[in-house]
């Protein structure tokens, strides 16, 4: 139970607020470039991101931050199954939308949603609930390795078929974080790491799309007008920002050559306008969010709360770091959004709802008792 009058963790709440408000400003600047190209109209851009994403997302954050996080343990299997079913619906011809070579969206009432975003949170729920329930069997290969593979099987199959390897990477990273935090033996961890590496190696071998991303990563100078185009333009934008940047709203690449300036390339827009100093500040914010989230999870009053906090913190921050790393050429391009900043109503909504759950866990932290 919480102490009477206990509140959410203020430092974490402030960090989320700064990222959301600052991200909205960065998004507004990036949107200018997109609109100047004739890529859309102001009303649709504002409605999709600020209303459907940030607006409803903040409401979701307020709701989830007020719901006792232990409720999610009871409903974790149902949420997980619903998220899997919704993701599978993208393969229904009347509902699924194909864009950019992937079938990842549902069109409902004239709006497009990406159900795999909910599967990120659903998998964290399921992993936290499962590993908190098998504490007595933590030495069993069947319960640990078999259980994790069982949780990941359906999400992996659906995301490989779409294909959406970036989202699969986030889900695997979050589930593995829960797996590690659950205290499984190191032998199990080593075996699981080998399985993951072999699985991703096989995926790269059989999926041309994934293989092209890897080849572009190692040889970015090849096919600069095709697979290597985005990373090349991203690096030009980031490099032209220099130490202090061109100034907010003064970026050039968003108006011309930078693909997806409101989407997965938005960090390049921010780096060009805010420079090295601003880029480091953004990275530092996400790093502090991770550290604060892990610290709060370590002080949760029960195993489920701790594992859930670890999983959500990993999901939110690994998504951001993978996006930033891909824009810097440190990792292959993935197409995943920059948390709290990139365009994407569904991604923003689920991210903010997840942050609300993390804030609720902080109410029950031993520091609040």
Describe the structure in your own words.
By secondary structure, the chain is mainly alpha-helical. It has a domain at 26-125 and 213-368. 67% of the residues lie in helices and 4% in strands. The chain contains twelve helices and three strands; from the N terminus they run H-H-H-E-E-E-H-H-H-H-H-H-H-H-H. It has helices at residues 10-36, 42-66, 71-88, 116-133, 141-161, 165-181, 186-206, 208-218, 229-240, 266-298, 303-328, 345-363; strands spanning 96-99, 102-108, 111-113. Strand 2 and strand 3 (111-113) form a beta hairpin. Helix 9 packs across helix 10.
Structural class: mainly alpha
As laid out across the biggest beta sheet, the strand order is 1-2-3
Uncertain runs are none
How far is the first residue's CA from the last residue's CA? 8 Å
Helix content: 55-70%
Mean pLDDT comes to: 86
SSE succession? HHHEEEHHHHHHHHH
List its salient traits.
369 residues; mainly alpha; 12 helices; globular
Summarize the structure in short.
With 369 residues, the chain is mainly alpha-helical.
Q: What is the topological layout?
A:
Blueprint: H1 10-36, H2 42-66, H3 71-88, E1 96-99, E2 102-108, E3 111-113, H4 116-133, H5 141-161, H6 165-181, H7 186-206, H8 208-218, H9 229-240, H10 266-298, H11 303-328, H12 345-363
Antiparallel strand pairs: 1-2, 2-3
Helix pairs in contact: 1-2, 1-10, 2-12, 3-4, 4-5, 4-6, 4-11, 5-6, 5-7, 6-11, 7-8, 9-10, 10-11, 11-12
């Amino acid at each position: 139970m919480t102490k009477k009058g206990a509140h959410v963790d203020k430092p974490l709440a402030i960090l989320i607020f700064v990222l959301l408000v600052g991200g909205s400003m960065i998004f507004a600047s990036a949107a200018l470039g997109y609109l100047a190209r004739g890529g859309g109209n102001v009303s649709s851009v504002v409605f999709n991101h600020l209303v459907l994403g940030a607006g409803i997302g903040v409401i979701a954050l307020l709701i989830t931050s007020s719901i006792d996080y232990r409720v999610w343990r009871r409903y974790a299997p149902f949420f997980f199954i619903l998220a899997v079913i919704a993701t599978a619906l993208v393969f229904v011809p009347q509902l699924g939308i194909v864009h950019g070579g992937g079938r990842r969206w549902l069109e409902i009432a004239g709006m497009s949603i990406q159900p795999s975003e909910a599967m990120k949170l659903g998998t964290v729920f399921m992993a936290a609930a499962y590993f908190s329930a098998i504490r007595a069997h933590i030495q069993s290969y069947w319960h640990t390795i078999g259980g994790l593979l069982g949780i990941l099987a359906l999400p992996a199959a659906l995301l490989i078929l779409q294909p959406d390897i970036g989202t699969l990477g986030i889900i695997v990273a979050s589930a593995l974080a829960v797996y590690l935090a659950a205290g499984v033996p190191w032998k199990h961890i080593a075996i699981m790491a080998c399985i993951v590496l072999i699985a991703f190696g096989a995926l790269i071998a059989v999926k041309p799309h994934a293989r092209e991303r890897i080849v572009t990563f190692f040889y970015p100078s090849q096919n600069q007008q095709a697979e290597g185009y985005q990373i090349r333009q991203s690096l030009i934008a980031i490099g032209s920002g220099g130490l202090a940047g061109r100034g907010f709203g003064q970026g050039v690449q968003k108006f011309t050559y930078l693909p997806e300036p409101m989407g997965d390339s938005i960090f390049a827009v921010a780096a060009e306008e805010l420079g090295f100093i601003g880029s480091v500040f953004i990275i530092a914010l996400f790093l502090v969010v991770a550290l604060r989230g892990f610290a709060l999870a370590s002080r949760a009053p029960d195993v489920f709360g701790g594992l859930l906090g670890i999983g959500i913190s990993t999901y939110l921050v690994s998504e951001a770091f993978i996006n930033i790393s891909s824009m810097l050429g440190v990792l292959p391009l993935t197409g995943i959004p920059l948390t709290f900043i990139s365009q994407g109503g569904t991604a923003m909504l689920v991210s903010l709802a997840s942050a609300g759950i993390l804030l609720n866990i902080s109410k029950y932290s031993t520091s609040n008792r």
